[in-house]
Amino acid sequence: MERLRMGVLGCSTHYALRVGIPLKSSLLVEPYAVASRDAGKAGKYAEFLNFTEAYDSYDKLLADPRVDFIYCPLPNHLHGEYIKKAADAGKPILCEKPLGLNARDAAEAAEYCQKKGILLMEAFMYRFHPQWIRAAEIIKSGELGKIMTTQGIFTYNNTNPANIRNIAAYGGGGILDIGCYTVSTARFIQGAEPLGVICKLLRDPASQVDVLASALLDFGDGRTSSFTVGTQTFPWQKVIALGTGGCLTVELPFNMYGDCPGQLSVSTGVGKRLVETEIADQYLLEFDAFAEAIINKTEAPIPISDAIANMAVLDALFASAASGKWEPVQKY
Predict the structure, then answer these.
(1) Domains along the chain?
(2) How far apart are CA 130 and CA 289, in angstroms?
(3) How confident is the model over 120-163, as pLDDT tens digits?
(4) What is the spatial distance between Cα 222 and Cα 182, in angstroms, rounded to a whole number?
(5) Which of 148, 157, 256, 278 is deepest in the core (most CB within 10 A)?
(6) Which residues does 217 contact at the CB level (< 8 Å), separation at least 6?
(7) 232-243 and 147-157 as β-strands: parallel, antiparallel, unpaired?
(8) What's phi and psi for 34, nearest 5 deg?
(9) For the chain, how big is the Rg over CA atoms in Å?
(10) Torsion of CA 21, 27, 32, 36, to 10 degrees
(11) How far is 6 from 295, CA to CA, in rounded Å?
(12) 332: pLDDT strictly greater than 90
């Protein structure tokens, strides 16, 4: 079977570091075209990562009839615009998180694609890794009892003012960049949507992006989730799920290596064990799963409703940080 030809919008560092190499092993996806507003940059990027075509504009790539689907790792503020442009071109879109700058934008983009019959998925790669699939199995089995609370931490240190993550107008800041992960895992583990949130955050005095945020999510019936994300602190990440009968820890929940087994620490009344899952690359699994959905004309592996619901929680976090009070999570 011929592989689907993928077009990438932008010379993404993320793609070069984490996605390009694993996709060389894909039997379903061919990295075919890349676009940049800088022709020289696009050409060098294409040569380095073995793209067949390089374009000096995103619109030219979208107009290429040979491109079967689009991967959009553009800055956050451009996601909505290019989701719609890709849909207009009749091309399915795998878009980096978050889907938009707020839930209303995300819902609008999703509705736009739905009306045109175009497949759209938010790129939460962690969902495809065997360690998270196994974690979900353990939780659903009831071995941990009822999950009462989760804790998440995700931090890195990036003080470069020119980096898109530190530019407010581009949708920079920790909550949109990595808070989306801690919220997503909390919702995933709890199997529910939070009713309300309270959030405290610190903004960089120069850039005004949020660089440290801590929050508590209320899932009702006494169930909660808490997390901290930071962009100017020591890099760290971990997710813990605590139930009435046990505790599960995902040791490296997000930036999992593609050449090491996943590790879950599970403690119950029987004892403590370390669960290792098979070596797998979460990006390869993610892109192949999206390609399979296109080929088989099925729904996206992660429904777009999940992206909108996640974004609604992020909206509530910003509202709470501004008001200093508990804020409800709106439904879309």
Answers:
(1) 4-123 (3.40.50.720), 129-284+311-328 (3.30.360.10)
(2) 13
(3) 999 999 999 999 999 999 999 999 999 999 999 999 999 999 99
(4) 19
(5) 256
(6) 183, 186, 194, 196, 197, 224, 225, 226, 227, 313
(7) antiparallel
(8) -135, 150
(9) 20
(10) -40
(11) 13
(12) no
